[in-house]
Amino acid sequence: MKKILIVDDHADIRRLIRMTLEFEDYEIHEAANGDSALERALILQPDFVLMDVMMPGGMDGLEACRRIRAEPSLRNTHVILLSARGQAQDKEAGLKAGAHDYLVKPFSPLRLIDALASLWLVD
């Protein structure tokens, strides 16, 4: 069973993503900000991190992505950034931070499942 860490400062967004994935074969965990995302990722060693870009606190999604991707113990973790910011430079910044994919909110549940499935096949 693949582990997913959902990271978003809005509990309702985390719940929607959880509901989208609950019928798939995933063990789902949650974090509310970049700092706790990094802490939880180090403990859980998730296969996937689905992370909002814009979050309050000391670490936004881009910085959390950089740190996750730089951590040797998390080298097999795939990061998919989720953001309302959909300009080309936003997506480019996400991919430069190490994200494997970048989905613009609102995205369809099917698009999220497809993104996970395509990365799962790469494993």
Automatic annotation (TrEMBL):
Keywords: DNA-binding, Phosphoprotein, Transcription, Transcription regulation, Two-component regulatory system. The modification 4-aspartylphosphate is found at residue 52. Coiled coil: none annotated. GO terms for biological process: phosphorelay signal transduction system. Signal peptide: none annotated. Residues 3-120 form the Response regulatory domain. One of its GO terms (molecular function) is DNA binding. This is Two-component system response regulator. It comes from Kinneretia aquatilis.
